[in-house]
Design brief:
The protein is of the alpha+beta class and about 375 residues long. The chain has one domain (about 65-373). It has helices at about 5-60, 210-215, 225-235, 245, 285, 290-295; strands at about 65, 85-90, 90-95, 100-105, 105-110, 115-120, 120-125, 130, 135, 160-165, 165-170, 185, 190, 200, 255, 265, 365-370. The strands form 6 sheets. It has a 4-stranded mixed β-sheet with strand order 1-8-7-14. A hairpin with a 2-residue loop joins strand 7 (about 120-125) and strand 8 (about 130). The chain starts with a helix and ends with a strand.
Length: about 375
């Protein structure tokens, strides 16, 4: 080969090397850009999801208020805990603008490690009944002093506790099998037996947050889990869950797992917590708009923590305590009247349950010593 030809070949070869190197760099840069774009897309998607979740949670927390109070809590037994790590979330009365109050069954969900569930509650204030949504947090906050049972005595939670990364169950107030759940203990719980489902106002629970609950309110909270939200939605789709249909005694009062309303999972209510009275207005008339609710007619706003004159605090493990009589008046606040006592049962006592704004005094419920299962 001639020298000139050799030089040309050398130059051609040297020219190809940078070209191949540039192609490799462009390929690497392309892959990196694709990865970055994918990360950005996932981040944007996460932000959107969190924004919708936060907006929905915020709307439930402060934007729902009605003119009629919820029925008493029904009497029901707790389903067997499905296994380790499950946490009990008690049932409550939800609200639908078309059908009014409907029962959201209590259920077991897998808890975020180290987190405890503070139930939501209805509270009287500003002339309306406002819903305060539940949340997950490191400590139990204020839930209106409502006796949801099964460890929720009205203050705190005595159904179990976290020890490190494992949850231990108090068998005295929770239905667990030592065959499937080995982390258990047995601690006596003294309970007051009530069925009142709201805080403040006449017939409501007279409870104010403790210092610990106030502190817990300022901690970082997590919204209900996706399965809890879905569970509530499914409950709202079944007409049998509405108080207008079941008169305070839902056919499905609790389920073993969230969203599972099948016969093998569902537990019916043993009795209504008090006599049911249909509201004198439609759900749409009872619903309060956000603007009107924010104005209210009292400086109390939606925090029903000013001390009412009526009492009704208590705690109870649903399904196994001595009976007592009670009643309920499920009429608009301005039309409240005395009600007849409901049928007695051996599952859980009921309590005088009214929903009228002017508070009146009533005797505190008798304390009883609860026996375990």
């Amino acid at each position: 080969m001639e020298p000139n030809q050799a030089n040309r070949c050398l130059l051609r070869d040297n020219g190809d090397a940078p070209s191949r190197l540039g192609l490799g760099n462009r390929t690497s840069r392309g892959k990196a850009m694709n990865r970055n774009r994918a990360v950005v897309r996932w981040l944007l998607l996460a932000v959107v999801i969190l924004s919708f979740s936060a907006a929905s949670f915020s709307q439930i927390a402060v934007g729902l208020s009605v003119r009629v109070g919820p029925p008493p809590l029904p009497v029901y037994a707790q389903p067997l805990c499905p296994g380790p790590g499950y946490f009990w979330t008690p049932g409550y009365w939800g609200w639908n603008d078309d059908g009014g109050y409907y029962w959201v069954p209590g259920t077991w969900v897998v808890a975020p490690v180290g987190m405890l569930w503070t139930p939501g509650y209805w509270g009287w204030g500003g002339g309306f009944y406002a819903w305060h949504a539940g949340y997950w947090g490191p400590h139990i906050g204020f839930y209106g002093g409502i006796n949801y049972g099964f460890g929720y005595t009205g203050v705190g939670f005595v159904g179990g506790e976290w020890r490190g990364g494992a949850f231990y169950y108090n068998r005295y107030v929770t239905n667990v099998s030592v065959t499937s759940v080995t982390r258990v203990y047995n601690r006596t719980v003294v309970v007051n037996n009530t069925t009142t489902s709201f805080n403040g106002g006449e017939g409501g629970v007279a409870a104010r947050p403790t210092a610990q609950e106030e502190s817990a309110a300022h901690e970082q909270h997590t919204a209900p889990l996706a399965e809890q939200t879905q569970h509530e939605h499914l409950a709202s789709q079944n007409r049998q869950n509405f108080a207008s249909e079941n008169h305070g005694r839902p056919a499905v009062a609790a389920t073993a797992k969230a969203g599972d309303f099948s016969g093998r999972s569902a537990v019916p209510a043993r009795a209504a917590g008090g006599e049911y009275h249909a509201p004198a207005m439609s759900p749409k008339e009872a619903r309060v708009g956000s603007t009107q609710a924010n104005k209210g007619n009292s400086s109390e706003g939606f925090r029903p923590f000013t001390k009412p004159n009526s009492t009704g605090t208590g705690s109870n493990n649903r399904g196994s305590s001595a009976p007592s009589s009670s009643g309920n008046n499920h009429k608009p606040a301005a039309r409240a009247s005395k009600s007849n006592p409901p049928r007695q049962n051996n599952s859980r006592p009921a309590q005088q349950h009214k929903s009228s704004p002017p508070p009146r005094k009533q005797n505190a419920p008798k304390e009883e010593h609860h026996k375990g299962r």
